[in-house]
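About this split. The held-out portion is used to measure sequence recovery: a designer receives only the structure tokens and must propose an amino acid at every position. Recovery is the fraction of positions where the proposal matches the reference. Here is one held-out target exactly as it appears in the evaluation file.
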């Protein structure tokens, strides 16, 4: 009959052997993983990264590949002080040690100026507009252009080389722009032009040329504000005499033909009288 103490002793020996076996297996696995990683990453083999700044991408890539490195362009900037298309920054930095097969990330000086989408700054204070434009990389003229307006010190328009730049238009970074700012009502009488059938931007440009501005804006379909809208009614009407700087109220619809019908109806009414 097997004694209980002998049974316990054998159980402990078996457990101990299993533990030893598990430890040995773990060591073998860890050694194998380390060996694989060393082979995969060329552990211990370090390369001093070459300085490729100032080179074209086509020239820099083969130099890095000759070192066993790869290259990827991750960003671009623009400067007129650096040759176009050349590398202006790299990571890892020159002379840093890295492993074979690693990627060198480079930033290049773009071959063309980055394009900026002009934001809608109309009716914004000129101080806010200046800050916004400079932050986007544009050059704001220190000379302002003033127009009569019931909205003094607010931006009425933005011009570049004397031409209005509408919201949404693209201009190169570094473009010089001038703000058109309202200074209040004038004293001269001006005739209200016909703005029926025009978009808001078209009407704004036309009214500015008459030293007038857009005032209250009413939408037939407020939920469609993001779609192109056309003016079908205005107040004051075409031909009325008002003081320069006054604002014209406009009524908008996505139906362009509505402005045509409104114009025709007005003309027929005048003919009848």
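Reference sequence for scoring:
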């Amino acid at each position: 009959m097997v004694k209980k103490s002998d049974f316990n002793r054998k159980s402990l020996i078996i457990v101990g052997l299993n533990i030893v076996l598990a430890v040995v297996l773990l060591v073998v696995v860890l050694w194998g993983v380390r060996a694989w990683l060393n082979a995969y990453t060329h552990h211990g083999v370090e390369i001093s990264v070459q300085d490729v700044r100032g080179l074209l991408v086509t020239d820099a890539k083969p130099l890095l590949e000759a070192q066993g490195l790869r290259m990827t362009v991750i960003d671009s900037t623009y400067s007129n002080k650096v040759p176009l298309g050349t590398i202006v920054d790299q990571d890892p930095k020159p002379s840093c040690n890295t492993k074979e097969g690693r990627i060198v990330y480079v930033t290049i000086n773009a071959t063309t100026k980055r394009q900026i989408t002009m934001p809608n700054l109309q009716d914004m204070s000129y101080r806010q507009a200046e800050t916004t434009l400079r932050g986007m990389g544009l050059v704001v003229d220190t000379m302002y252009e003033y127009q009569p307006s019931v909205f003094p010190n607010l931006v009425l328009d933005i011009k570049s080389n004397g031409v209005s730049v509408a919201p949404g238009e693209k201009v190169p970074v570094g473009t010089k722009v001038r703000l058109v700012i309202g200074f209040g009502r004038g004293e001269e009488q001006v005739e209200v032009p016909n703005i029926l059938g025009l978009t808001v931007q078209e009407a704004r440009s036309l009214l500015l040329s008459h030293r007038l501005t857009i005032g209250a804006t009413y939408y037939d379909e407020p939920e469609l504000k993001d779609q192109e809208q056309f003016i079908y009614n205005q107040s004051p009407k075409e031909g009325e005499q008002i003081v320069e700087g006054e604002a014209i109220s406009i009524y908008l619809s996505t139906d362009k033909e509505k402005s045509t019908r409104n114009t025709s109806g007005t003309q027929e009414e005048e003919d009848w009288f």
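Annotator remark: The first strand starts at residue 46 and ends at 48.
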